[in-house]
Design brief:
Length: about 290
Amino acid sequence: MHDPEYITLDDGKLTVASRFLPLLQAAGLDSFDKIMALPAKIVIRAVPGRSTIRVEFTSPTGDTVVGYLKRYGEEYLSPFDKLLRLVRWPGSDDEAAREWRKILLLRTHNFLTAIPIAVGQSRRGGIVTSSFLLQQEIPDGLPADDYILQRLASAPHQRKWKLYEKLGKLARTFQDAGFIHKDFYLKHIFVVERGDDWDLYLIDLQRVLGPRAHRQRWHLKDLSALTHSARRRAHLSLPNLLRIYRGYAGITKLRATDKQLVASIWQRVLKLRGRQPKYGRIWNAAKP
């Protein structure tokens, strides 16, 4: 069935949200190859075969639209990865298209995400070998760890505690909806101020699982990732980590079952401290 919200171009290699089609056409970006070849004026992150760059477009009305282009090249796939993709092994599908689908799915469940602009895929030998995902910038958004350090450093304690509890409530709402993030770090939660409150956006969604029931160990992994990043990146104290947990659990005082879960989370946090990064060198313009 044709979906008027999304338009397919370039012999099926490019899908564009219809509201952004005039923007891309004005920039001459009407094919997979043209978008894939956009010059990297600002590199946000790059590892072998994969990069994220910041791009700017001028709309037909003269407004500037900022986006982030996440690109996957063929060198990102090992020969074994290509074999898995050829036999359609679970989890081996193209990450750009998968994240596109997850964004659309989470938005139907009322979670805030970056607005998707376009997704593209190129095939060779029967499999997707290169792809991209283009998303609009989250206006005035900051990763939660940066927001805590930069914007809340001198804020009243009550305001800090309110955000910590809200982060915990987001984790609970996400899990109650049947989702697991698998990279549920503060840097993947963007904070946008809305008066005295905040909107929380989820990013980097290509590994999201759900909606369905999950084993407790998956819940534990997401909570541990959140706690680990809050401790290591935002430098939160143990009492403030517990405020995140109390927001998650919807309680003011820990029960015996809560103490057991907190202990399990902390054991996993200690393991995460010793984990080595997958790549020896990562270029990150935001964090030199």
